[in-house]
Amino acid sequence: MPDIAAAVDLAEIVAFAQKLIQTPSLSGEEQAVADLVERRMRELGYDQVHRDAMHNVVGVLKGSGGGTSLLFNGHLDHAGVGEMPRPFSGAWMDGAEFCRSGPVLYGRGASDMKAGLAAMVQAGGVVKKLGLPLKGDVLVTCVVREEMARGEGVKAVLEQGFAADYAVNAEATNLRVYVGHRGKAELGVTTFGQTSHGGNPAGGVNAILKMTRFLAALEKSYPLPRHEFLGDATWTVLDIEASPGALTPIVPDRCRAVIDRRFLPEESQEDVLGGLRAVIAGLAAADPEFRAEVELLKWFPAMFTPPDSPVVRAMQRARRGVLGQEGKVGSWYFGVDGTFLNQAGIPCVGFGPGDEYLAHTPHDVVPVSHLVPACLVYVQLITDMCT
Ligand SMILES: [Zn+2]
Predict the structure, then answer these.
(1) For residue 217, with 0-12 CB atoms within 10 Å meaning exposed, 13-18 middle and 19 or more buried, which class applies?
(2) If you average pLDDT over every residue of the chain, what do you get?
(3) Which of 66, 250, 293, 300 is most buried, judging by how many CB atoms fall within 10 Å of its CB?
């Protein structure tokens, strides 16, 4: 058994993570950071490095055949910087300023997910350096346009034929094993009324007041399911508008709200739409003037890989080997590209450095102490599954 721990160099991972953070890569502008990743994979001795016109980069470690193959996935892009100061410094800082103990790397994308990219790309290098006898292939996929939440980058990579028996998504999990996330639906709900002069409200039907009834009914009597590992389904209202508007004193005959609904893997589009339609039907039965419609605006699929799946069990073993404990399995509160891997029939588990709650915030940092363990766990997993 080669000494994996001795083969992972902290300074090397830190330097690479810092370079990634220092290279801006908004969605659709990933070329420079893709250059960096491609160059690093070549330096580390990957057997093949593929790059497509979108700037998705896929590094391959070829196995001798007959073994389990594993696909690592991460994204090259980061969220907008907002008012974050010095967002591309990649500075090594004292974590105390961010309520973390020990040093951190600071900058947009540190937690989401340039530290994860660095750990998984370096892990491939460690496998090469140690000459681990791979049977199955290891693919390291670094994809574009994840933050736009349509899976364009990862879907393109899948369409090009890259596939494996199992997958790992390296988004931030605080070094815990994650099994997925709830799905996200955005729904437009429109209530209808009848216009009248603002000075004569009794002459019309106010669509805004009908909407308040609808939202109150959701708060009071809208049953939502719960998942043992992914948590509660939830709803909230994101936006509300009415027309014709306040330019003239007119009672509105239309009011539209956008509802964010987080759903569980067992809920279909029809289930989610049907639940809201049932609330509308209940209100209409009690009030002949109540009229409303619901439409689906966006749908991001839920991800769930059962905890007894071989890749989750193997990830827990790898974590125990490196950190001493399997830890409790968890789930992300946001969505990741792993859901598209699951949909493509590649069971995916989550494990990565950094805290998901720092993603997209102005306190975007990753503890330096997460980098080597993340890389070690990946190498351990590869050793367990692919050799
Ligand atoms: Zn992310």
Answers:
(1) middle
(2) 97
(3) 300
